[in-house]
Write a structure and sequence with these properties.
Distance between the termini: 32 Å
Radius of gyration: 22 Å
Strand order of the largest sheet: 3-4-1-5
Low-confidence stretches: 245-258, 333-341
Number of domains: 3
Largest sheet: 4 strands, mixed
Strand content: 5-15%
Order of helices and strands: EHEHHHHHHHHHEEEEEEHHEHHEEH
Shape: globular
């Protein structure tokens, strides 16, 4: 059976990008898809049972939205936070919502609350938001810091491969068994949803987003007039867990200068400061976390800023620091933990 075929134009080659951060709702939907497909990957069986037992009743409406494994496309959004994701979904044009619900249900009779979505009722949209948040808090919130770390590793690895060996090498590296044939990127037939499918980018470009909860193959978002989004399996093939087991990386909690490869290069305090900037922080927050004075934290941040690893901006009375793209790549280097290759 033939696999997925993605057709590039010359314009598309310049419009391929790797998503710099994970998208919480995309990762959640990938995780839920894996949870309800038993037998697809035995390494996920224990995780699958635990997730299905733990999901609260508040998440039940999500199952109503995906009958027969056909989710409406308006649920697929790329946003850095859960709240931004909700806002993007709610901003979907009413005619798109109606068309997608009619496509998903066909001649079937949807539940009453789904008919409320079709009619634009706010109570039904609030039910979607409650269900997604309940599922996220149960399935992803305990491992989200690890997902961010894994995503940063994948981003750094593929960015460096593209820089050193070219885009074609970076793309085929993220999909073992795939190959380029002229202007066509051919994937093996690993996912029934994508098998035998031709996707023509036609100048729209391609966004590549790793997932760590869907080992069965790629997920596609192909909407007219928008870049195609390809969510591809990454990681070790084991579900992330809060203690870092199964992830292929060790936990950073409690790391010391002796096991942090950045410490000999940047110094222990500056390496720890760079780690802390996984999320933007103020000088006061950094000083508190590092147990140093504000002046000392500011001095270390200035040194990292001079090296191009950190950027600083004033927000009211405080100063906020965040990592640059180079800082993200640098912080992606970490000691290998249990289960690493």
């Amino acid at each position: 059976m033939p696999g997925l075929r993605i057709h590039f134009t010359a314009a598309d080659v310049a419009r391929v990008r790797f998503a710099p951060r994970p998208a919480p709702l995309q990762e959640l939907h990938a995780a839920l898809a894996t949870a309800v497909m038993p037998g697809r990957d035995p390494l996920f069986d224990h995780w699958r049972g635990r997730v299905l037992r733990a999901l609260p009743a508040a998440a039940d409406p999500l199952a109503d939205l995906v009958p027969a494994d056909r989710p409406p496309v308006f649920l697929d959004v790329l946003a850095d936070t859960l709240d931004d994701s909700f806002e993007q979904i709610r901003a979907t044009r009413p005619e798109t919502v109606r068309a997608e619900l009619e496509r998903v249900y066909g001649a079937g009779a949807p539940p009453r609350w789904v008919r409320g979505l079709h009619a634009g009722e706010e109570a039904s949209w609030r039910a979607v938001r409650r269900a997604q948040r309940a599922a996220y808090e149960t399935v992803l919130a305990p491992v989200w810091p690890l997902v961010r770390d894994l995503h940063r590793d994948a981003f750094a690895r593929h960015a460096l491969t593209a820089a050193e060996h070219g885009l074609a090498a970076a793309l085929t590296a993220l999909a073992p068994g795939s190959r380029f044939d002229g202007t066509v990127w051919r994937w093996p037939a690993s996912s029934p949803r994508a098998a035998g499918r031709d996707v023509r980018l036609d100048g729209r470009g391609l966004v590549l987003l790793p997932t760590f909860h869907h080992p069965a193959g790629p997920l596609l978002q192909d909407r007219p007039g928008r870049p195609v989004v390809l969510t591809y399996p990454s990681g070790t093939g084991l579900p992330p867990s809060p203690d870092g087991s199964g992830s292929g990386v060790g936990s950073r909690t409690g790391s010391t200068a002796s096991d942090d490869p950045l410490a000999p290069v940047l110094g222990r305090t500056r390496a720890e400061l760079l780690r802390l900037l996984a999320e933007p922080r103020s000088t006061t927050e950094l000083a508190r976390a590092l147990r140093v004075s504000n002046a000392t934290a500011s001095e270390h941040a200035a040194a990292l800023r001079a090296a191009g690893l950190v950027r600083t901006a004033r927000a009211g009375r405080s100063v906020r620091h965040e990592r640059t793209a180079l800082g993200e790549l640098t912080a992606g280097t970490r000691p290998a933990g249990p289960g690493s290759a």
